[in-house]
Design brief:
By secondary structure, the chain is mainly alpha-helical. The protein is 54% helix and 0% strand.
Length: 82
């Protein structure tokens, strides 16, 4: 029995946690630069959405204008063109 080593209790090692500090979270998510970038993203997305909406509306209006009415002659010009 003297030849078998006895397990020793080792003190727990200091483990470093990778949890971010509150200052890190503030600067990366709530700081002035991220807020500005997010506002620019929202502004750009709003502009794209409005341009898509207006383009679709214009295309629908143009399509409706080209569809002849039920009793319209095929060789007559539309009234808007006269």
């Amino acid at each position: 029995m003297a030849d078998h080593p006895t397990p020793r209790s080792t003190p727990p090692e200091a483990t470093t946690t990778d949890s971010p500090t509150p200052d890190f979270l503030f600067t990366h998510f709530l700081g002035p630069r991220p807020r500005r970038q997010f506002s620019l993203l929202l502004f750009g997305a709003t502009c794209v959405g409005l341009s898509i909406f207006s383009t679709r509306r214009a295309l629908v209006r143009r399509y409706v204008a080209t569809v002849p009415h039920f009793y319209q002659q095929s060789n007559a010009l539309p009234r808007e063109a006269i």
